[in-house]
Amino acid sequence: MSSDPTRPPETTVAGDSEERIKRFLATASHDLQSPLRHIAMYAELLLDDLEETLDGEQLQSLRMIMEKAQTAQRLTKALMSLAGGTPQVTPEEIDLQALAENVWGELTDETAVREATLESDGLPSIRTDPALFGLVLRHLLTNALTYRSEVSPRVAIAAEREGTDWFIRIADNGMGIDPAYRERIFEPFWKLPKPGAVQGAGLGLTTAREFLTALGGDISLEHSDASGSCFIIRLPIA
Asked: Which residues fall in a coiled-coil region (predicted)?
């Protein structure tokens, strides 16, 4: 049977998608740098000028604005370097438990899914880039809250050391992934069908995999069925 001459080779399609992702990351990151820099700068100026007149809660809120803007600045710089083919990774010792709880708290506030629960007691400290890995966690936890089932969302995060790697499992009790789609979930610009779902870029798992590659690790779907899904992240210990 002859091939369809109008259909581009899959390698070309994959290459085009990769270039589109790189252009998207580079453009978005570049355009965000200036407003983020100004947010951080003005927050710092306000802290210097008003520190003596603000109460504890107001100071904490202002410091949080500055810290989040600075974190976003570091992340956009990392994204630009990733898009340019030379990712700049800044590894630090991070408390995985605190990071997971922080990301989870932000997401449940944003999505207003109050009945959701996170099981993650006793996670270790790991050495990795906090901005990039924090975004990986955000993508996975967002998916767990978005593709939930009829019961209250529950996510469990566990980590174990095997040889020279950390293996971090993120399991949910969501709707699961149809076997027909399991090879596609990491494809760029593809979204798992869900009636009434908010439309997005379809780059969450794709960028998560790219970030983990830059960190020397990877991600895969360990299992998925009607009781939920489990993704496994591998990260080098050093």
From this structure: none
- In 3D space, the residue among 64, 162, 154, 67 whose CA is nearest the CA of residue 117 turns out to be 154
Quick one: pLDDT at residue 1?
45
Task: Please state the separation of Cα 29 from the chain's center in Å.
Answer: 15
The CATH number of domain 90-234 is 3.30.565.10: yes
Reported as a pLDDT band with limits 50, 70 and 90, residue 21 is low
What's the pTM value of the predicted model, to 2 decimals?
Answer: 0.70
- Ordered by start, the domain boundaries in the chain are 13-81, 90-234
Structure confidence by residue, pLDDT tens digits, 139-151: 999 989 988 888 9
Cα–Cα dist 51/47, whole Å: 5
Helix residue ranges per DSSP H, 112-217:
130-146, 204-214
Q: Is 32:76 a contact under the CB 8 Å cutoff?
A: yes
